[in-house]
Amino acid sequence: MDLLSRTFHALADPTRRAILARLALGEASVGELAGPFEMSLPGVSKHLKVLERAGLVTRGREAQFRPARIAPKALMSVDAWIESYRSLWNQRLDRLEGYLQEIQAGAAPTSRDTGGNDSGE
Fold first, then answer.
1. Where does 1-121 show beta strands of DSSP type E?
2. The pLDDT of residue 53 is above 90
């Protein structure tokens, strides 16, 4: 699996997104990360491993303490991928808007069109 796929896989889980949101505030231990969740420490560790494989989190080692830290550079590839599509869709929507404006300008109803007679007479 390529890095972008691993990153999207990691971000697909709401628990992992919540962990990342917490780590955006600063480093934390597994126990600190487990606090808001009804989850075991090994369960949180598994989520951290998924985030680590995606490059979104790094883990340090300070004696027995292994703090997790967010690695924001990993999100740059996601941002670049999304930006390419954002640009594409903005261009398409701009063209659609121009087309709709042309239609509206050319299709202004005349007094004949508002007569209510559908027979074409």
1. 57-59, 68-70
2. yes
